[in-house]
Amino acid sequence: MPMDFEMPHVRQFRPPGVNPRVVLRIVAIIAAVVLLFTTWFTIDPEEAGLVMRFGRFARQVPSGLHMKLPYPLETVVKVPVERQLKEEFGFRTADATGARTTYSAEDLSAESLMLTGDLNVAVVEWTAQFRVREPYKYLFKVRNVRKTFRDMNETVMREVVGDRSVNEVLTVGRQEIAAEVEQRLQALCDQYENGIKVEQIVLQDVNPPDPVKPSFNEVNQAQQEREKLINQARADYNQIIPRARGQAQQTVEQAQGFATDRVNRARGDAELFIQVHAAYQRAPEVTRRRMYLETMSVIYPKVKRKVVLDESLKGVLPLLSLQNPTEVKP
Amino acid sequence: MRQTRLIVVAVVAVVLLAVLSSAFYTVKETEQVVITQFGKPVGKPVTTPGLKVKMPFVQIAHAFEKRFMEWDGDPNQIPTKDKRFIWVDSYARWRITDPLLFFQRLQNEGGAQSRLDDILDGETRNTIAKHELIDVVRSTNRPFVVAEDVAELSQPEAAERVEFGRDKLTNEVLQNARRRTGDLGIEILDFRIKQINYVNEVRQEVYARMISERKRIAERYRSEGAGEAARIAGEKERELRVIESEAYRQAQEIRGKADAEASTIYAAAYNRDPDFYRFLKSMGTLEESFDADTLLLLSTDSELLKYLNAAR
Q1: From B215, which residue of chain A is nearest by alpha-carbon distance?
Q2: What is the pTM of this model?
């Protein structure tokens, strides 16, 4: 080594206690370490690495351990391509680490307040979930990608909400709005070449503005009230009508019973008469007398007071005190 | 001797290093570079990234952004054609298309941003003032989807037609602004309205309107409820009457028919011998109507007692 040759001269100037050989060795080791550490690099599972040679994009590498030329020649930029990224509008998650997510209290109404197509105002909060699909575009096509992406979100959401009525935004249109924003936003991302894939637009709270809220609640309340009144009336109806139906059925059944009874009795009576009459016809005179006398023989024993009047005795009637109602049989 | 040689080597090395570092420069993916020689632009702008060579010391490399950049407008209070005051916040995207021209006209990004402020703010104001508010808010005449139960309650404003629409409006701003930035070496790619809001006083009015509208709907629900309840109650009354009277009618009919049938049967039987029937019925009635309290005055002329006399 040429160093050995110059050693005696250097030794003359050396500070006491320091061996130049050691110094050189240390420098060599440091250089080697720097070289080594800038020659290999690791890419995490959710990332992709973009290697630049003299500032020019050279290659893209997947996750794992990779080699490159040492520092000044090649540099590497990591982009989380697999991670789902999120932007929030109208609210900010302050802490999502615990079981209960807390939201920051700052006023972000400027982000969420928007005009609807019927010139009313609605407060729409949403999140945009996205991924970096093309890291090259993401890094090199658009400056301040995240900020631009936020602007795009706000614009598209307002365009979509601006074409809908406040009722639609607050009630039936939620799903549709999210879907349309997603689609339009993706189209805009493609147009801007920012390499972003919009995964999902999630509408969070969609509300009327605070001062208007109570009156919206009032509408809900009135709706409930309406249902209540109607239900009460229905209950009343259901309480009365089926019972009345049953009672009506009962009335009809009773009448039918009566009818059957009446007809049967008539038939029985008629049959009896026919039979008796048939017998009577065989010897009318005798039968008639017999029947009369039989009746009398039933009646007479039942009656306790009996007065027998002779034709020849007149004027006896006034003498009888007739307190009780009497039957007179001539 | 050896020391002098060492110094010379060191000096040469330093000079060489300086020359090399001045001759080579890197252009990043995000950059484009204009080379000037004593302040005068030389050659074409360098737009491809990588390691490049220039003349050391006499030439200077000026790097400019190659990516799309954002322009964020200041929220502006603007009256629309129908005299409504709104806050408009817009953004645009632009890029340097001709770095040389850009360098000459605007020097740097700061210059560009303030120029864009002038142009875009002005154009926004002009364009919005020419159109009605609804044209700023809506893009199409898409009919609103209305929930069934509020169908009749939708406000008249919903019917307001869009003459122009937001898309066309922002496009107009864009075209006008492009015309004015053509000679600045920049290109505006897109201009959009980010936020539109009512100024405070107008907002209060809008809120008041929304509240009264809701109240109207609430009242409607309430009266609908009461009306429906009354209708059901009426229906109940009616049905009750129908059911009861129908049952009565049927019962009477059945009874009547039975009576008629019974009469027919009786008549058919008794008509064989009305006289005998009368006799038979009288006997039956007699039997039933006499009891212990009856006072019986009997004439000796009667059928039974005539033999009493006869015997005497």
Answers
A1: A215
A2: 0.69
